[in-house]
Design a protein that fits this description.
The protein is α+β, with helices and mostly antiparallel strands and 267 residues long. It has 3 domains: 55 residues, RNA-binding S4 domain (Structural Genomics Hypothetical 15.5 Kd Protein In mrcA-pckA Intergenic Region, Chain A), CATH 3.10.290.10; 89 residues, Alpha-Beta Plaits (2-Layer Sandwich); 90 residues, Alpha-L RNA-binding motif (Alpha-Beta Plaits, 2-Layer Sandwich). 21% of the residues lie in helices and 26% in strands. Strands 7, 8, 9, 10, 13, 14, 15, 16 and 17 form a 9-stranded mixed sheet that branches. It starts with 7 loop residues before the first strand and ends in an 11-residue tail after the last helix. The chain binds uracil. The site of uracil has 8 residues, from α6.
Length: 267
């Protein structure tokens, strides 16, 4: 298998492209000894394969190269954790998407148990990795119902970049929304003594929106994500998924600055 052969690629990249897991997840599967190439266990991360000729199996099941990757969005309801399985048996988002039709689907990033909104799923490990990479600055838009009456000035620390326990945050555009915006999201009036705030993040740290708004003394009561990068939830019902359109996939790829699928570049 030569370096210049057009179908040669690193095994972890092949697994990610084939939708087995994210790139990092694929590496973990390899080092756990679950992957074979032509019947031989391949746990070395540098292993290269010929995608045309080599037979790759994970847990004894053939991994087929060249299947078109799948992209879909879910309007995640509250009460589900963002994982494809949970040893403790808690409800997870895997129940809400067609994993039998599209094996290898996984969520891109995560939303908290009680957060609703746009959760992207794909079988395309490269795109997922690119979208989540901090250098790509893919914007996530959140709408939060918060305790207390918020003035625009109070959001200035978010806009200028606040410091949280795990380090400084990138400046996050933030503004107070009208009560009508809350009705669009939750179909309820804004409770007395609460406000609705929109925050745009270009990073994705744990509980970041909740921690930022908590820091300015407006704890989050409800959190919803209407947009992820160029994707908008629109009027997709809670708990419902749909495949992305070709236009949405192209815009997503542009946002992540990823080349077209099935090229043979190493990286
Ligand atoms: N920020 C949070 O605090 N929670 C989420 O689910 C997403 C962003």
């Amino acid at each position: 298998m030569s370096e210049t052969h057009p179908h040669t690629m690193r095994l972890q990249r092949f697994l990610a492209r084939a939708g087995v897991a994210s790139r990092r997840g694929s590496e973990a599967i390899m080092t756990a000894g679950r992957v074979t190439v032509n019947g031989q266990v391949a746990s070395e991360l540098g292993t290269k394969i010929d995608t045309e000729r080599d037979v790759v199996e994970v847990d004894g099941k053939r991994v087929v190269w060249g299947d078109t990757p799948v992209y879909l969005m879910l309007n995640k309801p509250a009460g589900f954790i963002t994982t494809m399985s949970d040893p403790q048996g808690r409800p997870c988002v895997a129940k809400l998407v067609p994993t039998d039709r599209y094996p290898g689907l996984f969520p891109v990033g995560r939303l908290d148990f009680d957060t609703t909104g746009l959760l992207l799923f794909t079988t395309d490990g490269d795109l997922a990795q690119a979208l989540l990479h901090p250098s790509r600055h893919v914007t996530k838009r959140y709408v939060a119902l918060v305790d207390g009456r918020v003035s625009d000035d109070e959001l200035e620390p978010l806009r200028s970049g606040m410091i949280l326990d795990d380090g400084p945050c990138k400046p996050a555009p933030a503004r107070v929304l009208t009560p009508r915006a809350a009705r669009a999201v939750w179909n309820t009036a804004v409770p007395r003594g609460a406000s609705v705030v929109e925050v745009e993040l270009s990073e994705g740290r744990k509980n970041q929106v909740k921690r930022m708004l908590g820091r300015v003394h407006h704890p989050v009561l409800r959190l919803h994500r209407p947009a992820f990068g160029p994707l908008e939830l629109g009027d997709l019902e809670r708990g419902v998924w749909r495949l992305l359109t070709d236009g949405e996939i192209a815009r997503l790829r542009a946002a992540a600055a990823v080349s077209e699928p099935h090229d043979s570049k190493e990286g």
